[in-house]
Amino acid sequence: MEDIKTTHDIKILVNAFYDKVKTSEIGFFFNDLAQVNWKKHLPKMYIFWESVLFATVKFDGNPMGAHYPINEMAAMEKHHFETWLKLWKQTIDENFTGEIADSAKTKAENIANLMAYKMEMARKLS
């Protein structure tokens, strides 16, 4: 296996990851609550992860803002983000190895922890 090096690699990672997510215990957030349009969502995720991993400045979305309305419909709790992280790391380990792959896991840990905290705080304030 090789490291994550290209946009194509990110597409492979993101597609394989979301294939897992859709059928996992957190799939209902995407499929039922958010009713994600995958043809629109996946390209945004390619750009997001490319910006995170390759330090590009292409991503102009608001990940936190996109999650707050879903959190209001059903609590997005720490264990949900732990599942998300487990699936992310599993997908990386199945497809890639190397410095950027390791960085993708570390950065996802930081994202999951921050998201879990912010979603919990939002619930407490509402």
TrEMBL record:
<protein>
    <recommendedName>
        <fullName>Hemoglobin</fullName>
    </recommendedName>
</protein>
<dbReference type="InterPro" id="IPR009050">
    <property type="entry name" value="Globin-like_sf"/>
</dbReference>
<dbReference type="InterPro" id="IPR012292">
    <property type="entry name" value="Globin/Proto"/>
</dbReference>
